[in-house]
Amino acid sequence: MSAVTVTAPRAVSLTKSRHTTVTDPALVRRAVKAAALGNAMEWFDFGVYSYIAVTLGKVFFPSGNPTAQLLSTFGAFAAAFLVRPLGGMVFGPLGDRIGRQKVLAFTMIMMAIGTFAIGLIPSYATIGVGAPLLLLVARLVQGFSTGGEYAGASTFIAEFAPDKRRGFLGSWLEFGTLAGYVGGAGLVTLMTALLSSDQMTSWGWRIPFLVAGPMGIIGLYLRMRLEETPAFAAECEKAESNRRKVPLREMIAGQWKALLLCVGLVLVFNVTDYMLLSYMPSYLTSVLKYDETHGLLVVLAVMALMMIVQPFAGALTDRVGRRPVIAAGCAGFLFLSVPALLLIRQGSLAAVGLGMAALGLLLVCFTAAMPSALPALFPTRVRYGSLSIGFNVSVSLFGGTTPLVVTALIGATGNLMMPAYYMMAASLIGGAAVWFMAESAGRPLPGSAPSVEA
Question: Of 422, 438, 322, 373, whose CA–CA distance to 151 is shortest?
Answer without folding.
Answer: 373
